[in-house]
Predict the structure.
Amino acid sequence: MKRIGTTISIAITLCTTPFNVNDSIADTIPLLVEEVDSDYLFTTLSYLTSFPDRSTYEVQEEVIAFIGAELGNAGATIQLHEYELYGQTWHNVVATVPANASLDPSEPHLVVGAHIDSVPACPGADDNASGVSAILETARVLANADLTMRVDFVFFTKEEGGHEGSEAYAADARASGEQIVAMIAVDMVGFGPANEDLDLVTKPAMAWIVEAFNEGVQTYTSLDTTLLIQESCG
């Protein structure tokens, strides 16, 4: 739970700092972090891991409906992204914050994503109920925040079998001219060694978001970080 809470704190920082030129944001972020509800986070984790696995169409549709209802009630704008696979219409769910954000695809925006499914015969507590819970709570906290850029929280289906959900979403986003500034994938954030540290490696073109990530880590966690910006990475 502590690691998931750390992820939420960093995510809140990433969804605000890089795009906000107002100096008062430094005062706003701690207030947003304080709104994180650990009981609600645990309830979400318990719900997601109550299934023997989340690999089937029926279970993923149920989870998508749950996420849409939770974040819709919180004030986010909910859309279902449809794609066809194996003769069925599958869905990713997109929760847009803040509540008054424009949905014009030409508006620059950030995408934060996590996949809801797990491998068969596995409840997927870490992979990826932890990531889903983290970004669901981040979206809930930010639903009515004063952001200067729209953030789309995307919950992907059918990911473990071959990235079908995310690939369909990316293809449709490209085709519709979505102006996505950056995408942050939140995956397996609930487990790790007690003495873990964080290595941040990126290319110069994406240095701005990694530097913001590093700032969030330094401010809200006790993790040791190493930042490396170089032409060749990965």
Summary: The chain has two domains: 2-192, 194-234. The beta strands are 77-85, 88-97, 109-115, 150-156, 180-185, 198-202, 225-229.
